[in-house]
């Protein structure tokens, strides 16, 4: 069971893809773009970030605002 922080909502589909990140905004961007390019668009995408800085968060929120983002310090 996924417990989301208060105020974070995303649509539940049969498929939920999680991208786990740690201080690699360029790799995260490539992974997100790869998922978005898939032919079947029936999925939810969640980025979970435990970075020591906020580079991944800034990248996700500025380039992919429609994606659910979770910060895990």
Can you summarize this structure?
The protein has 73 residues and is of the alpha/beta class. The protein is built from two helices and three strands, in the order βαβαβ. α1 (25-36) packs parallel to α2 (55-63).
Instruction: List low-confidence stretches.
Output: none
Share of helix, binned: 25-40%
Structural class: alpha/beta
- Tally of DSSP β-strands: 3
- Radius of gyration, in Å, reads 12 Å
Write the H/E string, N to C.
EHEHE
Report the principal-axis shape: globular
The percentage of residues in β strands lies in 15-25%
Strand order of the largest sheet: 1-2-3
**Arithmetic mean of pLDDT:** 86
Number of discrete helical segments: 2
End-to-end Cα distance = 20 Å
Count of domains: 1
Reported for the largest beta sheet, the result is: 3 strands, parallel
Describe the structure.
With 73 residues, the chain is α/β, with parallel strands linked by helices. It has one domain. It contains two helices and three strands. A three-stranded parallel β-sheet has the order 1-2-3, covered by helices on one side. Helix 1 runs parallel beside helix 2. The mean pLDDT is 86.
Question: Main traits of this protein?
Answer:
3 strands; three-stranded parallel β-sheet; alpha/beta
């Amino acid at each position: 069971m996924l417990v989301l922080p208060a105020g974070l909502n995303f649509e539940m589909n049969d498929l939920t893809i999680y991208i786990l990140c740690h201080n690699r905004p360029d790799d995260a961007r490539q992974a997100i773009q790869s998922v978005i390019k898939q032919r079947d668009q029936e999925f939810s995408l969640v980025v979970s970030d435990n970075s020591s800085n906020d580079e991944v968060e800034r990248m996700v929120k500025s380039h992919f605002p429609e994606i659910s983002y979770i910060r895990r310090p």
